[in-house]
Specification:
alpha/beta, about 120 residues, Rossmann fold, single chain, 5 strands, five-stranded parallel β-sheet
Length: about 120
């Protein structure tokens, strides 16, 4: 059996952590931070294959966190990152595009489609 890989989730919401953990626990260890400012440090420490950012996270929202990760990546301070953003509504898709994320999902989360999207992203 293949070793589980790390996926980093940044959200303040317990239910989102629970939903994503349940959806991904078969193939991934879901690591959880509750604030955007914690994401970079967690990436350096845990080397996740994917970072999932809730649009609404403490201190630094998902969009700002995604842009920060892209800046760090371009500066060569972190390796290339796969980023997925959890959007609050369909109308927020323009934020997903502007955030330089690889993809996004509109809440509420459909576990099956999320799992498939993550598998496609991680294996691309």
């Amino acid at each position: 059996m293949a070793e589980k890989t790390n996926v980093l989730l940044a959200t303040m919401e317990d239910h989102i952590f629970e939903e994503i953990s349940a959806s991904l626990s078969r193939n991934h260890n879901v690591l959880w931070v509750k604030e955007g400012v914690e994401v970079l440090k967690a990436i350096v420490k845990t080397a996740p294959v994917l970072t999932i950012l809730d649009l609404q996270i403490g201190n630094m929202g998902g969009m700002a966190t995604s842009l920060d990760l892209r800046l760090e990546q371009r500066a060569g301070r972190i390796p290339p990152q796969k980023i997925l953003i959890l959007l609050d509504r369909e109308a927020d898709e323009f934020l997903g595009k502007r955030s330089e994320a690889d993809c996004w999902v509109v809440k509420p989360i459909d576990p099956l489609s999320l799992s498939q999207k993550i598998n496609d992203l991680v294996n691309s």
